[in-house]
Amino acid sequence: MTLSWSALLPAAGDYRDATPPGSPSLVDALPLGHGLSLSVVADGDAGLHVVPLVAESRAGAGDGAAEGLVALLAEGDAAIGKFRVRAWRGVAVSGERAVTVDQTNESVIVGDAAVVKWMTQVPEGRHPAPSLLESLEAAGFTGMPQPWGVVEWSPSPEAEPRLLATVAEYVADAVDGWTWAVEDVRAGTAGGGEAVGRLIADFHRALAPTARPASADEVAAWRSGAFADLERAIEVTDGAAHDLLVRQADAVRAAFAEIPEGGSVMRVHGDLHVGQVLRAGGAAPYDYRLTDFDGNPVVAPAERIREQPAALDVAGMAQSFTHAGIVTRKHNPDLAPVAVTAAAAAGRAAFLDAYRARLGDAALLDKRLLRPFALRQVCREFTYAATHLPRWSYVPEAALPMALEES
Q1: Tens digit of each residue's pLDDT (9 = 90 or more) over 186-237
Q2: Domains of the chain with bracketed CATH
Q3: Angle 177-187/310-331 helices, nearest 10 degrees?
Q4: What are the binding residues for ATP?
Q5: Which of 60, 83, 151, 228 has its C-alpha lying 20 to 30 A from 114's C-alpha?
Q6: Where along this sequence does the record place binding of D-glucosamine (predicted)?
Q7: Residue 370, beta-bridge partner list
């Protein structure tokens, strides 16, 4: 088999601006029927990539690879060579179409019933999604597209399994969070803030059995990690974004230095923002579902699976309401900036109030962490823009001064 990167890489995601080094070579393949496979491909530096394969080319929507994976899940759990199939539910369905919104990985809708998400690269270490989904399933959490299953691969019996693909329920007529949140801000309403607050509180309550006191080393890691996120953002940015970070670096460091001692940690989402919440239904009351349990794409794989404070999720979601206001202002210059900022702030406040009310006596949130963790998220947004989506840079550039002004 002769493989070439031009035939293997998706059009978007991690490969927008870079081709892997060297020539591709096939490492392993999970048969999906009809000449299709879910393949692990190595590059010249021994980096590993996930490729749904048909003949010697990447299988796209309509080629049947996603259908083949859904059919495999319908047969139940299986160990096939170095591959492990974990199935929670599902039936064989047919018909494929691509998901076209911006995403780090690649997704295909199958039979208007399931969404297959192919990972693109295969970093070392265990992926957070399988065990997190397993915990949520055990807790009976229903505020997400119901997971159908996952496929993992281990390079050796001793190695941690690596996630290659996930399959979950397709939520019909669902609207992406960066769409509905901006629509709410444009309409001048707090919109989905309250419902999302309840959803995230239910999510954290489902994971409450994983909570435990934080160790001194973990608290120290929050501080050192925050400082490292700032330095990373300064390193990878250039132009106006870089200059802004350098000017505000001391103020950001001062906020990170105030991270308190103590607290608790638990399993968390790790990359929570409005874009991870789907809204379904043509009119209120809408159905909100939490998605994408991959963890933050700019964080090392080993860190994504660690227990973290609940405030990491809450700060990220709250900050994203501010970001929705920034997006609205950019794309709607006819709207009064003050009104847009007020609507975004109302959504943020509604989210926080509803989260706290729904959480009740479950002492999971340390509100002292919200501001430093929000600033840490803004630093990560700079890094994400510089390394994944350059046109996003205007958002953290506007958000950083706002976050520093907040008490």
Answers
A1: 999 888 999 999 999 999 999 999 999 999 999 999 999 999 999 999 999 9
A2: 5-169 (no CATH), 177-405 (3.90.1200.10)
A3: 60
A4: 117, 176
A5: 83
A6: 271, 381
A7: none
